[in-house]
Amino acid sequence: MPWTDPTNLLTDAGDPLTSELVTALKNNASHARRSTLNIKSFTVAGSYTWVVPPLVELIRVTLVSGGQAGTATISGESGVQITGSYVTTPGATMSVVVGAGGLNNGQSGGNSTFGNTALGIVTARGDRTTPGAAVAAFVTWDIPPWMARGGLRGIVNGSGRPGAVYIEY
Questions:
Q1: CB–CB of 88/122 below 8 Å?
Q2: What DSSP state is assigned to residue 135?
Q3: Which residue has the higher pLDDT, 22 or 106?
């Protein structure tokens, strides 16, 4: 039986992405049955997989790219952070990559990515450029990529810090 919004708190803001999210929430009974919030964290640079649990069709993902290394005279820049809602399929295997921090002399941090080719891949780029079309997999944005700051910057003559990927479901 589809979930209903008895207090009519969910409203359509008129844009296509919000409309799609509101429709998904109102039509998905699994959201009404879930009373706990789970968070899966990936905070060490590297590649991982994550299998979407049963009944989970909408998740919130935060990606943080690695921070830029410092140089002999200046600190590096922070990485990029993006957060958004992602429509998925129970049992789907998702690829997770946590970007490494830049090593030295102003090297950019690594990209952090989440998703799969069937459902879409989202990228927080370590070189601080706009993520581009890859972010289309997000249904809505909590923080647009060009407004947020991410992984810790490298200090003078120091390495940048690794990024992270957080999944809320």
A1: no
A2: G
A3: 106
Going by C-alpha positions, the residue among 114, 111, 52, 61 that lies closest to residue 83 is 61
d(CA 81, CA 151) in angstroms, rounded, equals 8
Structure tokens at 116: 């799969």
> What are the tens digits of pLDDT across the range 3-14?
444 444 444 445
The pTM of the full predicted model, rounded to 2 decimals, is 0.70
Q: What is the pLDDT of residues 30-79, one digit of tens each?
A: 444 555 789 999 999 999 999 999 999 999 998 888 888 888 888 888 88
- N residues, the chain: 169
CB 65 within 8 A of CB 109: yes
Give the Cα separation of 30 and 28 in Å (integer): 5
CB contact at 8 A, 167 and 109: no
Helix (H/G/I), strand (E/B), else coil: 95: strand
Residue that the structure tokens 């399929």 belong to = 89
Q: Which two tokens stand for residue 61?
A: 């993902």
Compute the distance between CA of residue 115 and CA of residue 152 in angstroms, rounded to an integer.
24
Q: Where are the domains of the chain?
A: 37-168
Residue 22 burial (C-beta neighbours within 10 Å; 0-12, 13-18, 19+): middle
